[in-house]
Amino acid sequence: MAVTDHRHIEGQGMLIENGDFALVESEQDHIKDIVLDNPGEWKQWPLIGTGALNFLNSTVDLDDIKKQIQTQLESDNFKVQEISRSASGQFRIIARRNEDA
To answer: The domain containing residue 80 runs over which residues?
Structure first.
């Protein structure tokens, strides 16, 4: 079952279709939020978030970052299939919502 949410477009506001807020598939948005947000940013779930931007130019081991991302995604019911990093430093995360829960 696909998860949907309202779409906010950076600098433009909410996406509107047929005079109402549009609902769009949102799994990738949820993954991005979990990876980029810091713990404590979500009042209702204060432990979620990796704060990945804090790792930029740090001495943190890549495996530690991957483990943190995987742990956070699994805590939000994702099954992580791949976490890799390109030579340019961009992360590739393949994860799907666990349908068994």
So the answer is: 26-97
DSSP structure class, residue 7: P
Q: Which residues pair with 6 in a beta bridge?
A: 23
| Cβ pair 37, 51 in contact under 8 A | yes
Q: Has residue 73 been placed in a domain?
A: yes
In a domain, 12, yes or no: no
pLDDT, tens only, 33-76: 999 999 999 899 999 999 988 888 888 888 999 999 999 999 99
Helix (H) or strand (E) holding 8: strand 8-9
H-assigned helices in the chain: 27-36, 62-75
